[in-house]
Amino acid sequence: MKAIQFNFSKSRYIFSKVAGRFLTKAYWDPRFSCLQYTDHHRKELPNDDWLRVEVKYSGICGSDLNLIFLKDSPATSPYVSFPFTIGHEIVGTVTEIGSNVKGIQKGQRVAVDPILSCEVRGIEKPCRPCQEQNYSLCERKTEGAISPGLLTGACRDTSGGWSPCIVAHKSQIFSLPDEVDDLNGVLVEPFSCAIHSVMRSQPKQGDTVLVIGGGVLGLSTIAAIRALGFPCKIASLVKYGFQGELATYYGADEVIHLSGSGYDEAFAKAIDATVLSPLFGPKVIEGGADIVFECVGRQQSINDALRFTRNGGRVVLLGLAGIMDGIDWTTVWLNELEIKGTFAYSTETYQGKRLRTFELAIQLIKEGKVDLSPMITHRFQLENYQKALRAVSSKGKKDAVKVVFEP
């Protein structure tokens, strides 16, 4: 079978890094890049606590693009094992079951939580975060019965969603009810990221929330706030018109567009803040949002997040911020801002109950509180991966939001 794999090679890395500045295709050209569409042997179940899932859809995530465009920080490199098959947004059907797996049947439709925590790794004495059910903070991502990997899709032993099938531990499997179709199922993973960030920074009655970014993560954050029922005003800062339409669809009260000049004045007007003019440089906003969810992870978006947060407010970083220069941290100390990072998903307290984030995401979709499927704008077969990457890397020209692979 064929799969899309990333296999580090110093010479290919250097070539793509240099050539990619002039020709985007250099990042995925199989002749020169670390990305390969290649023969891939089906992984065996590591033990009887595992099962096999035939992939129906697998999404292209912003973190996948960071990898392909060689923007990842080297700080994450100890937490992968080469060669790995990419893809951690996965919906599929169970086709093989280990003898210790109970309550799951062949043919069952499932979403896969890709975190490779202590339980998945067969570690008998879990680390403290795993004992506290904070699986995203697992401290043993390089240990246990499988190779290093933050997630399925970054570990050579599990395969990933950009292939016909994966193996997964029984604790990673979440059954999908009939009310949750496959297009919603493949978006359970990014929706769970958004839910996790919102539950860890819950808006209060009367708060103004700014969501920066009109991609899947930004739109999912708006959808999560509304589906969870937090009574707040939401402003959305987006780049493209079609993103603004979806932001409104998912519950944004105000949409501000980055196109042209003066978006900071438009934001201030939308939330009744004051614009101050410095001697030079970006405008200063007095009286910004109570909480800003930064869902892009770029220099401009992070600077905007810091500028647009009120005194004593909170900035939540979801957007894969890595190594970057040119961040003005003045407002962090001047306005006593709180900076909060969030990674992936874990366990949440919702309506007095402790739930895995994936469980909560599936419940909200099942109850009809959100339909994520309008975000899926493009589908490609694996062999057309270069067309898929061109679509997702030129969103404005293609009106692309979520691009997925299908059989």
**What is the CATH architecture term of the largest domain?**
Alpha-Beta Complex
User: What is the typical, i.e. mean, pLDDT?
Assistant: 96
Provide the low-confidence segments as ranges.
Answer: none
CATH superfamily of the largest domain: Medium-chain alcohol dehydrogenases, catalytic domain
The outline comes out as: globular
Backbone CA Rg: 21 Å
Tell me the β content. Answer: 15-25%
Largest sheet: 7 strands, mixed
Give the domain tally.
2
What class do helices, strands and sheet pairing give? alpha/beta
Number of helices: 13
Intertermini distance:
12 Å
CATH first level of the largest domain: which class? Alpha Beta
Number of strands: 20
Helix content: 25-40%
Can you walk through the features of this model?
The chain is an alpha/beta fold. It folds into 2 domains: 2-187 and 373-406, Medium-chain alcohol dehydrogenases, catalytic domain (Quinone Oxidoreductase, Chain A, domain 1); 194-341, Rossmann fold (3-Layer(aba) Sandwich), CATH 3.40.50. Helix content is 26%, strand content 25%. It has helices at residues 10-19, 62-68, 128-131, 182-185, 188-200, 216-228, 241-249, 263-271, 299-307, 330-334, 357-366, 385-392, 395-398; strands at residues 2-6, 35-39, 50-59, 84-85, 90-97, 109-112, 165-169, 173-175, 208-212, 233-238, 254-257, 274-276, 284-286, 289-294, 309-317, 338-341, 347-350, 353-356, 376-381, 402-406.
